[in-house]
What does this fold into?
Amino acid sequence: MNKDLLISINQMMPDFSKGQRLIARYILENYDKAAFMTASRLGTTVGVSESTVVRFASEIGFEGYPQLQKALQELIRNRLTSVQRMEITTDQIGSKDVLDKVLNLDIEKIRRTLDETSKEDFNAAVDSIIKARRIYIIGVRSSSALASFLGFYFNQIFEDVRLVNTASTSELFEQIMRIGPEDILIAISFPRYSKRTVQASRFAKDSGAKVIAITDTPSSPLAGNATHLLLARSDMASFVDSLVAPLSLINALIVAIGLNKRREISETYNTLERIWDEYNVYEKAEEQK
It folds into this structure.
């Protein structure tokens, strides 16, 4: 849902009951906070019953309150500053049982990712990656950790993998200037979305390359440039980006490709094991006596 939701609520204001107007005004003025409130809490905040909040959601065209809440969350997804995220985290999670609350929120994100990610798109993405001549990977800011993780394993599987350095816009385009129809760009971005990642995905698409977008919703600015869209939930409004579900999706991508190329990968790791052993890359476990 976009700005039309707030416009619609404002336009419908004269037709609302007294209680509905209280809800509407609060949402219009505090939609960033309302997006993470239960129906009961929103009702308590504005001084109406939970059932009034549920009826309000139906009145403005939603099947129920969860759908209204989801629409508000989509509206603010790329708008919250770090300060606002911190305020919402404090309000939503509090200071008690943080471990349980955060881990359970992350578990729920993985469940939703499993429900919402298209298996057809996932399998098609695996096939496109395997067939690509060159693989470019881009992720900026917190998403750079995901891009580095993916690049680490892809470099052990494929011959030509390029992790795009995004220190500056000019350097970005210099690194992907030769991307073409036989290549693929894996673009990773979550709210707040990176302009550089979106620009790179548009350039790759215009150059005839396939684009795999790993992002959170079909309304992400990466989606329009994507050949294959892989969705992973990252809903936590905290000042810390929750990357558990995206990382799990990337793990699945690596494993699926590994299973398709298991013979080549087995030979690669046999070679790597000899190199690691010769150059003492890993600490050797002491033999038990």
